Amino acid sequence: MKIVVVGKGGVGKTTVVACLARLIGRDGYSVIAVDADPSLNLAKALGIDSNSVYSKPVLFDEEFIKERTLLPDGAYRLNPRVEDVVEKYGIKGPDNVTLLKLGYVKKGGTRCLCPEYAFLRALLSHLILGRRDVVIVDMVAGLEPMSRGAARGVDLMLCITEPTTKSIDVTQEIFRLSKDIGVKNFAVIGNKVMSDEDRVFIERSLSGIEILGHLPYDENVVKSDRLGIAVLDHNPNSPIVAELNMIKKFILNFKKAEDNTYKFSTSYK
Length: 269
Description:
The protein is built from eleven helices and ten strands.
């Protein structure tokens, strides 16, 4: 199962990815959590001490990228070898989760960045289409992942949405663009919901789009972030974890159809 998590900046994608990855891992699945967001905050959200475990983000290893992408004549490979990247760069985390930090292209305007982008496209394609693990990707915020088509082939696109007009607008645009790249299963998770009014606002604004659930505004998220630890470790019984555990059960109820596509089963509620 391959899941990509998208949404407007600041809506809580990283918290959702980290919790879902560990909750799915606790059910016995091997999970690869991919940090494709330039902020690179997923390690702490997963409960991995970034100071005790050093791992260079893949795109920061320029020599490795050159080795895999550049040909002797100066041209570059469109399909570089990437099948060993998880084993080379993955960081073992709790609950059967392996973290892979992609990083971002640090230098612009100095040369052609085709090798980095060719490598990134090949790697994401391999993770989505070529691995048997559960893969959950914390995508860069906003619409860029849709314009680059980086989410092609996923089983489920989850869009995290706040009860604000700006967040709703981004969600609607991502949903529209998801159809252009062939995403078959698109769903929303409401986050930072403080009242029934917030819940109704999201549901009415996104009428016709699958909504898996609503995560309450939870002070445990703020406190755990302040402490630099995972919310699952700070308070495993917090309201947001309880709701995500229910959403996890719904996600794992996906059934693979004979035509090799995933369909939603009945709601978890």
